[in-house]
Amino acid sequence: MERSLMKGNEALAEAAMRAGCKCFFGYPITPQTEISAYLAKKMASAGGLFLQAESEVAAINMVLGAASTGTRVMTSSSSPGISLKSEGISYIAGSDLPCVIINVQRGGPGLGGIQPSQADYWQATKGLGHGDFHVLVFAPASVQEMVDMVVRAFDKADEYRMPAMILADGLLGQMMEPVTFPEIKDNAPEKPWATNGHKNKREHNIINSLYLKPDVLENSVVERFERYKKIEETETDAECYLCDDADIVVCAFGATARVAKSAVNHAREKGIKAGLFRPKTLWPFPVKEINEASKNAKVLLSVEMSMGQMVDDIKLAINCSKPVEFYGRTGGVIPKPTEILAEIEKLGGVK
Amino acid sequence: MNYEIVLAGFGGQGILFAGKVLAYAGLLDGKEVSWLPSYGPEMRGGTANCSVCVSDEPIGSPLILDPQVLVAMNTPSFEKFINSVKPGGKVFVDSSMVDVKTDRTDIDVYYVPATQLATDNNMNGMANIILLGKLIKETEMFTLEQMEAGIRKTVPARKADLIDVNINAVKLGMAQ
Among the four A76, A271, B24, B64, which has the fewest Cβ within 10 Å? Predict the structure, then answer.
């Protein structure tokens, strides 16, 4: 299979088209604009629709409309733009609609900066809008995973009738790496719930997130959480690297995990037993996997491009059975391998 | 093989393109490669730079902070990166554009008047590729044939008429 050199943003866009994404609604923002630019060029000739909306709010509501018809649909933005979309995402979740949302994160809060960041972890995994709901959150760490995970995101969103997010960052979006496109199929299942026109051949479908009777609303939320429970049991995914005998398990996702892996390799060269645990799904958090990866560890070290937003999830996952330390940079600063190595050495008792 | 390279200069000098040529040459040689541009408001008018890794091993951080190889095409870039080059590293300077030199003696610095050479040889805009020619000669990172393959992949189809002049620019750089 031919390896080609592509930016993360462009590879993701190509993979989305191959996965059967027929509609894209977006609004430009650095560092994800190449996704829009790529789809603007290619989508129409592939029989799809690209539309640059008047705002992020408009774009996400167009996603709601397209998803209602059963069409595979995607939107993309970066941190401040995702905040603008959050109301619509809640409506989509409340309407049990599948869609794919891309967040190529930049520094925050506020307008923040444009350099890579992971400070939207809390937003993505805990509070991507009002109300009781979750979205699936995938965290790629390479251009290849930008491809593989967007395909999976479409499939899982359809399977569970819920939004799925790719939580990437500016580094992954902007870098080029070799990438291959495996045979990608549009696996979209039958969608008997879709409002796609039926010429009176069946009962009409209603897509809605408004339930004025509390017990009816409660039932709809409870049914959704039964689905979430199944997802937590079956859809977690993680990479464990040199964890079996590790005294120190470094926990990192996305681009940070690449830097952390270099640091783990350097630590091993110095005789320190370090390993890397990399969650590939952030919601659901890979609880079973992190317990297995850290079973022989003395300490865990979360490394993030934020002020430590994943630390609590790690502590909860291991039931606070071991100390969880933190090292991070934020605001668009990428941690250096040497900085992470110094933290590992500190924990490993190296002066 | 494990090369960590920073290329830097003004926007418009072909810094990102030159980085892509190296990355593609590595890709076609079966290596692991990464290419990471600086991005943001500094792209226009200010300095542009990119990090390129070419390695036998999977690449960790694609962001290079202390390169083994630096290509510097203007004075601000030269001054910004020259002290970050690893001891034993090699630096390729467009001396038509950079009017300063370094005192460092622990690195090899090659001053090539690339922009002047390009003008003299009717290769305007090829200073970047001339420097790559010098780079592959001194580092033995790639052969001429491998660079040629990288160029053929990188030059977009609508500019295919520029492939030969790019290849000639590599040869001119190798002759320096």
Answer: A271
Phi-psi domain of B136 (left: phi exceeds 0; alpha: psi -120 through 50; beta: other): alpha
Q: Does A246 touch chain B (CB under 8 A)?
A: no
Taking CA–CA distances from A113, the nearest residue in chain B reads B40
Does residue A53 belong to the interface with chain B, where contact is any CB pair within 8 Å?
no
Chain B interface includes A5 (CB < 8 A)? yes
Inform me whether the C-beta atom of residue B17 falls under 8 Å from chain A C-beta atoms.
Answer: no
Q: Best mutation site among B39, B56, B57, B153 for testing chain A: the one with the most A CBs within 10 Å?
A: B39
Calpha distance B140→B21 (Å, rounded): 15
Number of Cβ within 10 Å of residue B144's Cβ equals 14
Q: Any idea what DSSP says for residue A109? A: S
- Residues of chain A with Cβ-Cβ distance to B20 below 8 Å are 5, 176
* Closest residue of chain A to B28, computed from CA coordinates: A3
> What is the Cα–Cα distance from A251 to A326, expressed in whole angstroms?
9
Output the pTM of the full model. Answer: 0.96
Domain ranges, ordered by start, for chain B = 2-174
The answer to whether B47 touches B76, Cβ cutoff 8 Å, is yes
- CA-nearest residue to A106 within chain B is B40
Tell me the pairing of strands B47-55 and B32-37. Answer: antiparallel
Domain covering A4-193+209-234 in this structure, CATH number: 3.40.50.970
Residue A171, Cα to own-chain centre: how many angstroms? 15
Does B88 reach chain A within 8 Å, measured CB to CB? Answer: no
A180 closest CA partner among A149, A152, A147, A154: A147
User: Tokens standing for B77?
Assistant: 């870039």
Report mean pLDDT in 10-residue bins for chain B, 176 residues: 95 94 97 91 73 95 94 96 97 97 97 98 96 98 97 94 96 96
Q: What is the pLDDT of residues A27-68, one digit of tens each?
A: 999 999 999 999 999 999 999 999 999 999 999 999 999 999
Mean pLDDT of A143-155: 97
Cα(A340)–Cα(A250) distance, integer angstroms: 9
CA distance B6 to chain A (A): 14
A and B: number of Cβ contacts within 8 A: 55
Is residue A244 packed enough to be buried (19+ CB in 10 Å), middle (13-18) or exposed (0-12)?
Answer: exposed
Tokens 């409506």 belong to residue: A91
| Adjacent-strand bridge partners of B9 | B48
Paired tokens of A8: 């993360």
CATH class name, domain B2-174: alpha beta
**CA–CA distance, A294 with A314 (Å, rounded to integer):** 11
Nearest chain B Cα distance for residue A335, angstroms: 9
Q: Which of A332, A323, A286 is nearest to A79 (CA)?
A: A332
- Domain boundary assignment for chain A: 4-193+209-234, 238-347
Q: Following DSSP, what letter does each residue of A208-262 receive, concatenated?
A: -----SHHHHHHHHHHHHHHHHHHHHH---EEEES-TT-SEEEE--HHHHHHHHH
CA distance A144 to A275: 22
